[in-house]
Amino acid sequence: MTVATCKRFGAPADLERFRENLRGRVPAAARTVRVCIGTGCTAKGSHKVYELFAQALKEVGAKAEAAKCVGCHGFCERGPIVVVQPGDILYQRVEEPDVAEIFRETIVGGRVVERLLYEDPATKARARTAREIPFYKAQQRIVLAHNGEIDPKSIADYIAVGGYAALAKALTAMTPEDVLAEVEKSGLRGRGGGGFPTGRKWRSCREAHGQPKYVICNGDEGDPGAFMDRSVMEGNPHAVIEGMIIGAYAIGSHQGYIYVRNEYPLAVEHLKVAIAQAREFGLLGENILGTDFEFDIRINRGGGAFVCGESTALMASLEGRPGEPRAKYVHTVEHGLWDKPSNLNNVETWANIPAIITNGAGWFAAIGTAKSKGTKVFSLVGEVVNTGLIEVPMGMTLRQIIFDIGGGVKGGKAFKGVQTGGPSGGCIPAPYLDAPVDFDELTKLGSMMGSGGMIVMSEDTCMVGIARYFTNFLCDESCGKCTPCREGLAQMLNILDRITHGEGQPGDIEKLENLAGLLEGAALCALGKTAANPVMSTLRYFRAEYEAHIVEKRCPAKQCRGLFRYQISVEKCKACGLCRKHCPVEAIAGAKKTPHVIDQQKCTRCGMCLEKCPFDAVLKV
Amino acid sequence: MADENLVEEIVRRYDGEIGMLIPMMQDLQASCGYLPVGQLKRLAERLEVPLSRLYAMATFYTSFRLAPKGQHEVTLCVGTVCHLKGAGALSEMIREEFKVEAGGTTPDGLFSFQPVNCVGACALAPVMIVDGKYYDGVSKDAAMKILQDLPLAEAAAKGEGNK
After folding, report:
1. What's the pLDDT tens digit per position in B66-105?
2. N or C end of chain A, less CB within 10 A?
3. Is the Cβ of B121 closer than 8 Å to some Cβ of chain A?
4. Can you give the CATH number for the domain in which A420 is found?
5. Domain range enclosing A326
6. Are A139 and A117 in contact (CB under 8 A)?
7. Separation CA A584–CA A371 (nearest Å)
8. Topology given in CATH for the domain delimited by B72-161
9. What is the ipTM of this complex?
């Protein structure tokens, strides 16, 4: 960061003066290039793209800030994403060779490079800005508002878009009680999955006996297929920090922890930089903004254990012990970390706080449904056209999310179900596509909000297979402390293994249901209690698929090896002989100009012929 | 750096606070490439906790390893989306072709293989990460090619083991 004027803010007025200065320095029409360095874009080479832009701009004498690395724009499917000012022109799938053209045409010449704009697959219309792209149009961004706009490593950028104004307001114009009341009134519920009212949690912690009190940010986003929190921590770390400081002020805490997953090195790096900057500016540490409020934050990296996303396990991990949960009849808001009152919230929950304090509870409560307020960030992934990160108001229907924003199922396949809520969530089938998405509706459908993973599945997904996948995942991640989870999951996995291998027996479904009931009733923590959800929800909606596996030894989605056959289409086969050559068991017969045939007795269903056929002539039947 | 000083320096970095045990062990692993028994003994003594506690930590958390790692680090995402797009078959192929277990190292020390739950790059599925470089949409053939082309330095492999 290059802010020569940086110094400790001795009072909120200093912060405002600093903000005014920043805004005055950057004319609205300044030429800037913003390159996304979220994980998706980085993996596709966006760092190199940034370097090339930075170099080109430097050569023409532009200021260093003219080229910016910014956090995730959300449209990961179309990365690397580059946005050019003025005009907010969004270029997608930008590769190294495109940089020179964008520089010459757009930055110097002020013209648009048509071929790099987003093209609507249906209308073929090109969109110049994000606002014209259907993927963005239906979204409403609060948490992600500044993702993709600001440099996550620059506190000046965050302050320029209004950052830390909420903190200044809370510290000077509000008592801790006022802040609590505001958060309560907003109706904000925990974004980590449980949906517990945030204000009520804060109040319990504030009123609990014992000192010191801790506030904790849960950044151990372990659900596979979910990267909401990662993108917030990477793209706008100061929003999380500001939320935590405000929370600490309301609760009466002076020490905070951010627990980040080990697989997220970029999030750790950006948070570290942000915390150091906040300290330097007097926004963390003693006498925050010149008041007598004192608070600091420490980062802990996780060790790679899914169960540590559970609050009591996370606290055990923070104490330097294996992350095993404990029974929760003793609440963590009273006896949490080091047995002291501790308030734990998820990344997205914290990141909502500054906007609520700035705009007021009424503004927030006006968004969403009766009992689920505000917006929710989802990672929309799987067999969907527009993979990416989205933020929508609570109450939007699954259909709007998957088809309007997500662009429908990939490859024109039929929609089969959407899995929400991570491994402990459930699969929701097509008849419920018009259900509004909020905490209570998803629970009613046998799934849950979870942290916001949304995995779209097509007709090609075997629902028994997916239940087996999640059960296997949870079995691996079970900490082993309580018997129902440790042994019950292993037995369920055993049964699912048999079913997917064609060895299912009558009575297996009942056994699964029985074990599921035991888990729900007797397991110690939320991981165990909900571990049967994938099986229960697929049984609820796709029972016929289980029965086809067990009774007919047939996999309707044609995914489970041995439960379907390969056959060569007489019309499509060009008799090239590739399948015959690659078949490891010599089960394919055929000669030149004669369509090939698979000997079903010899075939081991390995699928090699399907992989090798250049004409898609091998079919699954 | 002398082995003894390493533990001392790491402990001081965190003021010897037991709550920072995971970061201390992470730093130790970052320096040594794995958690050597000798160093763990020193760390246990220094923090005045039983060695069994460190062993419990090292075996509970999947990011810790008690054996030296290979020359290259291969991470395969087996999260839900990657799974749907064939990561399971990729994992099986790598384990068979290179005689390596999940979390283990190939017999020749070429690479350590770690399937992980989700790297949060679902738009790229299936994803394989080799020495920090992301490969997207990896097919079986592409994975084989990437791994077969990894250079093996004979001397380095032996040196690593003796540390």
Report:
1. 988 899 999 999 988 999 889 999 999 999 999 999 888 9
2. C
3. yes
4. 3.10.20.600
5. 155-365
6. no
7. 59
8. Glutaredoxin (3.40.30)
9. 0.85
